[in-house]
Amino acid sequence: MGETYAIVSGKGGTGKTSVCAGIASALAEQNRKVLCIDCDVGLRNLDISLGLSDVPALSFLDVSEGSYTLEDAARHPRYPTLRFLTAPMNRPVEKIDTEAFGAMLRRARDSFDFVFLDAPAGVDAGFRLCSTWTDRFLLVTGPGPAAIRDAARVSDLLELSGKRNVRLVVNRVDEELLSTVRLTIDDVMDTTGTPLSGVVPEDANITLAAAFGTPVLMYARKCPAARAFRRIAARLEGVPTKLKL
Asked: Looking at residue 244, what DSSP letter applies?
């Protein structure tokens, strides 16, 4: 049975979606069967980071409500083992049948090695939809004080709801900036109360790759962000990997 992760953040602009796409692509490189689901109803953009903006994709409602099956999910043209479901645009998240959504995820765990839910930023209904049916979380934060504070709030809420498997990804890290403000990754971990899964450096290749409609791991295979995503992916599979920028 596969593992399901919700990729969450307290604040918009942390690069949560890029992290989701990068880790999923890194696992697909290793021929793992991966399903990515964009759960940001109304503000979907995971397809851009995956390099799928020109690929027709079903919404997760099409599958959860029974009109289609998981086998009908969009297949990535360059990663054969990576599938994608987008977020619906014609229904508010409060109107989504949560039980049907959970049943879809249970079926997905039987068919895929990894299922990633790109949750909307914040702790509103979309966050609750994802967290209800997920026991594993990657909490993405940037190094700024507002992002760290919001990440700590998300961590607290997950703990209060009984979710224990939460790991931190510190994204868009600039070592020089951290040194200037006298902030360390350990400080971020202490503030959020969350163990670290990985650190991703600030990397212009992520923006460039999205602009050219290409996954960053293919656009610049050895760029700093691509290397970081591969390290996090390895760690999710239980491979001991050094934590570094």
From this structure: -
Predicted pLDDT of residue 56 = 95
Strand ranges of the sheet holding 196-201, from the earlier edge strand across to the other edge: 74-75, 82-85, 34-38, 114-118, 3-8, 136-141, 165-173, 196-201
Topology of the domain covering 3-236: Rossmann fold (3.40.50)
Joined together, the tokens standing for residue 235 give 């760690």
Answer for the pair 34, 147: CB distance below 8 angstroms, yes or no.
no
Q: Give 165's strand partners.
A: 136
Task: Give the model confidence (pLDDT) of 134-151 as tens digits.
Answer: 999 999 999 999 999 999
| CA distances from residue 142 to 9, 62, 95, 192, 238 in whole angstroms, order as listed | 9, 33, 31, 12, 25
Report the distance separating Cα 113 and Cα 29, nearest Å. Answer: 13
The C-alpha atoms of residue 73 and residue 83 are separated, in whole angstroms, by 6
Q: Whole-model pTM above 0.90?
A: yes
Gyration radius of the chain over CA positions: 17
Q: Is the dihedral of CA 163, 24, 16, 64 positive or negative?
A: negative
